[in-house]
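Hi Prof. W.,

I finally got the VTT domain-containing protein prediction working! I wasn't sure whether to trim anything, so I left the full sequence exactly as given:
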Amino acid sequence: MDPLGDLIEWIAIYGIFGLFAIGLAERFLPALPSYGVLVAIGIAADDEVWSLHTAVIGTTVGSAIGALGLYLLVRAVGKRRTTALLYSVGGWVVLSRPRIDWTLSSLRDRERALTILSQLIPTVRLISPVAAGLLGTSALRFAAGVSVGIVLWNGLFIAAGYLAVMAMPGINSSALALKVLVLLVAAELLIALVWRLQRRHSMRLHPGASKR
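And this is what came out:
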């Protein structure tokens, strides 16, 4: 069985519009594993369903528009209602309140760089448009930063699928996506561990910083 492969067959019917739609959908459907879909899209690119650059462009435009839509929605709704909703939605995507607060704090302290980098962290990338709206990040800066981050994220996994099928023709998309998930979880745990160690080290050097 290859459910992701079946999904790609459906997307292929609509060509670049299907790529755009799946890029847009992953912003509003947390249960949709974007990395897995992107890997499967990369595999299909080798089968000439679409070219590699078309796959990256189509999914990036869809995802970027979805992220910008969330950002603008937050600016329109207001901070109080959005924050309450963010905490509620966080439970659905396994993001605790401390993790959400950390994301907001990090974006506030290093806004420009983390607007890009937040798109490279699973689950965090889903709430970063909401966080940027809450923090009042300028629309132009947000659009530019999030677009770069999405290009890197989408390009990485699409290229991974493309290269994987070249090395192993006939590979199962869903099986490859599962392996990618394991690597992503391991990488995220490692990043979280490094960040905590750095924070503890910083607090030891500057004891008063934690009280601010």
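The chain has one domain: 3-211. Does that look reasonable to you?

Thanks,
D.
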